Amino acid sequence: PGNYNFQKFCCNFTRTSVSGIQGSSKPAVEMCSATSPVILSPAEEDAIYTGQCVVRNTANAASPPARLPVPTKTSEAAPSVAPGSLKQVASTATTVNLTWMPVDSYKLNGVFRGYNITCRRKSAIVYTKTLTGTDATIQGLV
Q1: Is the C or the N end of the chain the one with fewer CB within 10 Å?
Q2: Going edge to edge, which strands form the sheet with 96-101?
Q3: How far is CA 121 from CA 25, 73, 86, 126, 139, in A?
Q4: pLDDT per position as a tens digit, 8-65
């Protein structure tokens, strides 16, 4: 009971997974707004959040909580970091061999779709390919 003269709308969000990795939860974070909607910011990409919301009055008393009807999934984004330790391991006049360390799964921010390899000569692209491994042999360079 009580008078709920609207002051602000508050939601507690808990991250329950990120990039498909279950058990990667984070403690709840409360976001409040004097107008609806409440925006979780910054939200992690490719993460699932659950939560509940309340209306608080001028005395900061809260209404009974309302749970979000379903977990909310954020959009995918580009990985947070580039692949590491890019190295040229061998080369000839027309071939280059490259290796690199993969991006950590928790920094992918979504489903891994591959590495884009592009070689340019001045402004012209001379080679482009998408690979899922951590090495590439680029042939036919002049």
Answers
A1: N
A2: 84-91, 96-101, 135-138
A3: 46, 41, 19, 7, 14
A4: 777 777 777 666 665 566 666 777 777 666 666 666 777 777 777 777 777 777 777 7
pLDDT of residue 1: 43
Look up residue 52 and give its amino acid: Q
Residue, of 41 and 93, whose pLDDT is higher: 93
**Cα separation of 132 and 47, whole Å?**
23
The CA distance from 50 to 59, in Å, is: 27
Number of helices and strands in the chain (H, E)? 0, 11
Assessment of whether the complete model's pTM goes beyond 0.70: no
Nearest to 49 by CA among 38, 60, 33: 38
